[in-house]
Amino acid sequence: MCDNKDECCNKLEAEAIHTNEQLLAFNVRSKDVNWHEYVTPKKPRSSPVYLQRQFNLISNYREPIGNHNRRKVLLCHDMMGNYLEDRHYHSSKKYDDYRFYHWSAVDYFCYFSHKYITIPPCGWINAAHKHGVSVLGTFITEGSDGAKRLHDILASTEMIDNIVDAMVKLCKHYHFEGWLINVECKVESDSMENLYYFLNRLREAVEQHVEAGVVFWYDSVIETGQLSWQNELNAKNVRFFRSTHATLINYSWDDKSLEQTRSLCEQERAHSQSVFFGIDVFGRNQIAKFQSKRTLARIAKNRFSVGIFAPAWTYETLQQFGYNIKQETGDDAVNETFLLRNEKFWWLLWDHLATHPYNTLAFYTDFCMGSGKRTYVSGLPKAAVEDGSEAAAGESEGFFNLSRQSLQPSVPLHDLATRHYDDAFNGGSCLRISQCDSSFRLFATDFKLPGGGLVFAYAYKLSPQDGEFDCILRFCTSNNARDCYLFLGDYYDTVSLQRGRCYVSPFKPKYNELLSGPLECPQIPKDMAFPDFQANGWRVRYYVVEFDGGIQVKDIGVLYRKTPEARDTAYLGAVYLNEFNVNHHDFPVDSNIALIQVYGGDLLN
């Protein structure tokens, strides 16, 4: 890490590359920075599933996915030229800036600008990697300057090799996975073979040197070198398709384009998932905006992948309705309206998107979106924690830092919950529950616990007169028998019932310190590990459950039971789940461990 913060901030600020000379010389501010210290490694993720009634926790149908029905998503982020507040590594104060957080549906994230070489900012890389999403930079040549740069590159195979090596070096230095190649200028016919050589060489190099390396081609020039968007895959551009891993089709396609592309994929014996039909959310040449679902449905029906361009439409267009999105320190009205619009937009699309379940333990989230009006630590504003009193609560500054984004819900929460920025358990926000008396899914998961034991904790805020709150785990036995449900609330005792439901009470608070056992055992997160913890109304419940065999946790959901006289609702601030071996701990008899016979008992009957 840098010792001088001002110098560090300058070096870590994201930047583009403008010339071949700058690229070949590796002339970037952060050339001496070890980005390994700042970048989150890309997390593994489970194979995706199509969720039927994706928000309903009780709906357990998951459509298996194979090459016959796999559709991928490329998210291409282009907002007002980019390199705005997101360029900073440490933070800006503009907490209301554009955030993307529906990562479970996305396979590739491309940071796009109209500069020659677009290097993704670290915050976007970290947010994507935490959710297992690959990140692409952009190589673009357009206009006379771009044509000149491309001409110089294609002058010789030696120059091409040097450029490819430099582009791979950028991937490895900044820890992103590949490139979108966008040639939007005429190419001389005698340079076409060298253009194909460039693409093949780049594909081979990222495959060899970059983990999960990938190269996308954007539908632009054709075999003659003319700039002629085809809006489909055909004989004029198929060689570019062969030379890269995937092709992003321009946005002006129609149903005949889908048919032509399907026919060519069959001819090439290529998977249709490698073709990404573009949707410009602003509506260029397609039905889009809040009607984007109609266009996506046509793509999905033909089993192609989709490239969603400019998803920040939900943020940018707030200006048309009188919102000021350029206030340096953010604005509550902008933030709240953007989040509502964004949830609705993705909720409308989700029927046609695959969901990647979380599969890595330990699982922890505090729902922070990478921004906040202030920073909270264990239920209190950070300034109050550092000062030792709640009097300093208003001194904490707003922040926008996508590297601080925590794991996000697996599905949009439109009409189910909202993001609450006036309070949080950790980070900058929490979930404010909107739906009552009916459970709903937060996280699709694929957690395998062969030992049959788990520890679960959640931080919540709820006045007793406003109702009761449960987290719910949907699980099955290791032989994938029928599903069961674990209701984690506050009950008199652990009660096993028929029809696959089990109700569990919290671990006794006076024994909470016993959960932080030897290092070889799972640990409760530091911010949640407080005996009988309560601050600013926040409480943490812990649960220890031991089954008589291995289980698989498939979903995490919530249920808020609202009282008729309720004045407020429930808030969820953090969730934690991990394997736990009860045999490694000497728990008192009255500690309230739940021992559940799922194999030998009547829970499955």
TrEMBL record:
PANTHER family the UniProt entry points to: CYTOSOLIC ENDO-BETA-N-ACETYLGLUCOSAMINIDASE (PTHR13246:SF1), ENDO BETA N-ACETYLGLUCOSAMINIDASE (PTHR13246)
CDD domains on file: GH85_ENGase
Protein name: Cytosolic endo-beta-N-acetylglucosaminidase isoform X1
Pfam families the record matches: Glyco_hydro_85
Gene name tied to this protein: LOC101899099
SUPFAM superfamilies, per the entry: (Trans)glycosidases (SSF51445)
Keywords per UniProt: Signal
Domain Cytosolic endo-beta-N-acetylglucosaminidase TIM barrel: 83-374
